[in-house]
Amino acid sequence: MGKDKKIYDEIHGYILLPEDYVKIVDLPIFQRLRRIKQLGVAHYVYPGAIHNRFSHSLGVYSLMSRLAKKLSGEAYIDKDDIPVLELAALLHDIGHMPYSHAVELYYSNFARSRGERTFTHEDLSYAVILNDSDLKEALNDIGIDPYEVAHIIKGNHRNPLYNQLLSSDLDVDRMDYLVRDSLHTGVVYGAIDIDRILETLTVDSELRLSIFSKGLIAVENFYISRLHMYRGVYYHKTSLMYELMVARIWEALLDENSELSKLRSFDGIISLIKSGEFRYIDDYWVHGVLASMIRNKECSDYLCDLAEMFLFRKGYKTIFDLTHLSNKHVSEVEKKFSRYIEQLVEKIEKENSIKDAYRFIIPFAESISIYKEDEAIYVVDQNSKRSIEIYEYPSSVIRTLPKYLIIARIYAHPYFRSTLTEYIDNELKYLYSDLTKHLD
Q1: Mind listing the pLDDT tens digit for each residue in 20-55?
Q2: What DSSP string describes 110-135?
Q3: Total structural domains within the chain
Q4: Is residue 287 part of a domain?
Q5: CA–CA separation, 375 and 373 (whole Å)
Q6: What is the pTM of this model?
Q7: Euclidean distance between CA atoms 59 and 65, whole angstroms
Q8: For a tag on the chain, would you pick the N or C end, based on fewer CB atoms within 10 A?
Q9: Are 411 and 247 in contact (CB under 8 A)?
């Protein structure tokens, strides 16, 4: 065993890390994940949700190790590739920005509107693996090609099965975070039978990740649990509002603080990774920067107000909420909602002499996939030996599930909440009625 280490995890029990993996976990760039909360700002709603990306990464590694060894024993995976898959699982979140997906919203939404390159945490994880000198050296020292690990994380490895294990509708990442997030938020929606799923996962004749029909109920529960976690946790109206606030704070922070200019672009972040500065950019770092700017009056009234509201949980308030289940991706709803917000901002500015009214409302509209047809798991019928998509399998309840969760919300600054609600109350009723026409 040498210097192998056992780490006790609240979900999976003891997780065994080989000595070579311990050296990677001990690197500063990996230890940084201890200081990034798994659910960003969800602890503002669920106080126990203070678990981090570090424990989640260990959990995903543990599940990948179990699954890779099982599939290797069944000759679907080359035994020599098990370490590559394990390390891809261990490092899949190494590039997450502070507050997890909250800051990612800035790069996916705000950056796009400004004509800047959009990117995801997978892109950043890829960049960290290839540009952090300590990590790259550690991988090379144990005979692992950093590029191969990075390609699995990006989902473009030459072996499609390897991509599916880490990034698909049913993968080890989702299995871990559903159970972990459920435990720490205190809700029971995310309870799934991981052991049964792992036991009955297989690979079909087309080399697609599949489930034997005897494991169908466990996988159905996975999909249903994920839907409930979407509604009750991940898109909870208050938690989502604080995530959207963080995205706006991040935008204003980068606009007003020239010392943080490298964080505006993908290339700038890569330069921080290469210099070793990226290891310090975490949740606590953001708190420190905001607190310092407020104390020293180094921020605009807008940013200082946002930061104070965020730090002391005095967020925006919901004035409009449409949550609906649909069988189709309704882009028309998002378009109508976007046009309405533009008109609303223009009207508020014109009739109330309010400058930059968009700062006082935060809109959100999205169609969230409950399952993706191009990624959905296949069911191998143990009688006919045929593999069928789970949403087409005759006895599967997934056939009856809606495909999308549609959410459209408007949040208002608390100072203007009553004014705005009274001012646009009738229009909001009309908007709700108009949008639902496209959902039924």
Answers
A1: 999 999 999 999 999 999 999 999 999 999 999 999
A2: IHHHTTPPP--HHHHHHHHHHH-HHH
A3: 2
A4: no
A5: 5
A6: 0.94
A7: 10
A8: C
A9: no
